[in-house]
Amino acid sequence: MALTDEHFLSSDESITARTIVYGLVQDCGNTQQIKNIGEVIGDLKTILVSNQHLKNERVVLLHYQDVESGAITFTFKEFSTHFEKIIDFLDGEDIVLFQVEINFGICFEFEEHNYLKTVWGV
């Protein structure tokens, strides 16, 4: 998957998206604890496989790069196809993926020695 400038949100858009989505995650109340990255990957695979009907939806992936907040957009199918490489790229960061209109999302927050999983709309 080749990324172009069009795949990246601006810094302001990224910060706004991060604020909105993490606010939603906190208010969601549908959070589960997961013990390790292996369980996160397995759980994420299950979510991706069971939601292939979303393959053409535009999604946003939040990330940090050198303490800068950023966001990359692509299709749900592109994320599904490359998610293991994307997790390697995130290197222990939170995994936050959501539909552009925020109708659905997946968040694995890294906390201490485990992950907190929050999912909405899928």
Automatic annotation (TrEMBL):
Record Pfam families: YxiF
Protein name: Uncharacterized protein
Native species: Paenibacillus pinisoli
Lineage: Bacteria, Bacillati, Bacillota, Bacilli, Bacillales
